[in-house]
Amino acid sequence: MKRVVYTQRMDIYSERNEVRDASDQKLVQWLLYAGYLPFPIPNAISIDNEKLQSWLLSIKPEAFLLTGGGDASERNLRFLLERKLLVWAEGNKIPVLGICRGMQTMAVFSGANLERVSNHVALRHRLCGEIEQEVNSFHQYALTQCPADYRVLATCQDGVIEAIESNKLPWQGWMWHPEREDPFQQDDVLRLQKLFG
Predict the structure, then answer these.
(1) Alpha carbons 7 and 165: distance in angstroms, whole number
(2) DSSP designation for 167
(3) Which three-class secondary structure state does DSSP give residue 9?
(4) Does the N-terminal or the C-terminal CB of the chain have fewer CB atoms within 10 Å?
């Protein structure tokens, strides 16, 4: 099984003075279902470049998944980690999938901007373009334009960009959450397997 390193959101528990790394168990189930071995990466490791490099060399990731949850404009340890992972993936030609916030992070990394949108939270809509399927939607921000060296794979009917693909690297971004589908959509699984190999 190929090793997939996935990022985690940061949940703040002020009453305990804790910041916890977290991910939905459904994400792990989706990766396992698709045939991958998932490895969560701790956000705090982004502080120390040497330890991060050592961690990556030990795990030997064959793909990265930048997960959803949170706002890509937040400048925290997760933001720092995901940027470092994108640099590492770019230098090593590692496949990357960005889901929701992960797609936003990829786009911002490549020079795009985000804007607030309405009618994209807790609903379903149909995609138009190369990807045509009904998907869930849980995002308050969207890309203002397609990043340079990317192409649009799908938009929503209101024109919001819902999926992108790099023209140079094995990278894609999807604004929906495939792990939240019950059952998992086979189109998403097949697309992931094509991307990650």
Answers:
(1) 20
(2) S
(3) strand
(4) C
